[in-house]
Design brief:
Layout: E1 17-21, H1 27-36, E2 43-47, E3 68-74, H2 86-102, E4 108-111, E5 115-118, E6 121-132, E7 138-147, H3 172-193, H4 195-204, E8 212-217, E9 220-229, E10 235-238, E11 244-247, E12 251-254
Parallel strand pairs: 1-2
Antiparallel strand pairs: 2-3, 3-7, 4-5, 5-6, 6-7, 8-9, 8-12, 9-10, 10-11
Helix pairs in contact: 2-3, 2-4, 3-4
Bound molecules: biotin.
């Protein structure tokens, strides 16, 4: 990877390294190029602007200067099928960062699968990308995170907000520091104790739990009461006929 082209002072968790960029196509792409070139886990790619920021489901992620864009390369000793649990790990780290800065934790909540909302509006996005090995274990995972610090995108399908719009004036580097500290803590809990404590902590912060919601994946849609997360992170809905349905990937909406 090329030399740093900006230099913020960012306190990092032990063993992590910062690659700071003024501008990149996407921090996830930059981190995946580094991973494929053999970079060790703990690399944090932090950019002040992205020219081709990537969102979930093939969408883009508007990335002007003033917001946080970072991707953390991890090489956990874990099965590929457990890698998606890291999106809940990242959501907890984002939630705790945002709630800590707001000083009003009750306004922030986690929306399945890995969104963090404040007052019902999206303040961050998480995009996980990974590569497995033929033995079914992970080679690398990239946890890409965008947090709206100074700007909230307009013209989005759903309402969006930013730390600034919520009355928090904070430097991007300080948000990064808090987020990396929280991410390191939650990753270590996950590595040591597995998904159970992550699942429990996520459920504590979950929005819409116990409410009737619509879950959509591909062309399918199910309406039901949001009962819980299963042991692997799938959404468990109780439909009107009393049956339980599991949804492994997709999006949820409040049922109208
Ligand atoms: C979403 O659609 O909600 C996920 C958005 C993820 C955006 C972040 S910004 C840093 C990292 N680099 C990218 O290109 N995407 C992620």
């Amino acid at each position: 990877m090329s030399e740093p082209d900006e230099a913020s002072t960012v306190a990092l968790p032990a063993g992590w390294r910062l690659a700071e960029r003024a501008s990149v196509d996407s921090t996830n792409l930059e981190a995946s190029r580094a991973a494929e070139a053999g970079a060790a886990g703990g690399l944090v790619v932090f950019a002040h602007e992205q020219l081709a920021g990537r969102g979930r489901q093939g969408r883009g992620w508007a990335s002007p200067r003033g917001n946080l864009y970072c991707s953390v390369l991890l090489r956990p000793d874990a099965l590929v099928r457990d890698g998606a649990q890291l999106s809940f790990v990242a959501a907890l780290a984002v939630h705790d960062t945002v709630a800590g800065l707001l000083g009003k934790p009750a306004r922030a909540g986690c929306k399945w699968p890995n969104d963090v909302l404040v007052g019902g509006a999206k303040i961050a996005g998480i995009l996980l990308e990974s590569r497995g090995r033929p033995d079914g274990r992970l080679d690398w995972v990239i946890v890409g995170t965008g947090i709206n610090v100074a700007h909230a995108p307009r013209d989005t399908e759903r309402p969006a907000t930013s730390l600034s719009a919520e009355g928090v004036d904070v430097a991007v580097a300080r948000v990064l520091e808090r987020y990396l500290t929280a991410l390191d803590e939650w990753v270590n809990i996950w590595l040591r104790d597995g998904f159970d404590p992550v699942r429990a902590a996520w459920l504590d912060r979950a929005l819409s739990l116990g409410r009737t919601i619509r879950a959509r994946w591909g062309r399918r849609e199910v309406v039901g009461r949001f009962e819980t997360l299963d042991a692997g992170g799938a959404l468990v809905l109780r439909t009107e006929d009393g049956a339980l349905t599991r949804v492994g990937a997709g999006e949820i909406f409040e049922a109208s």
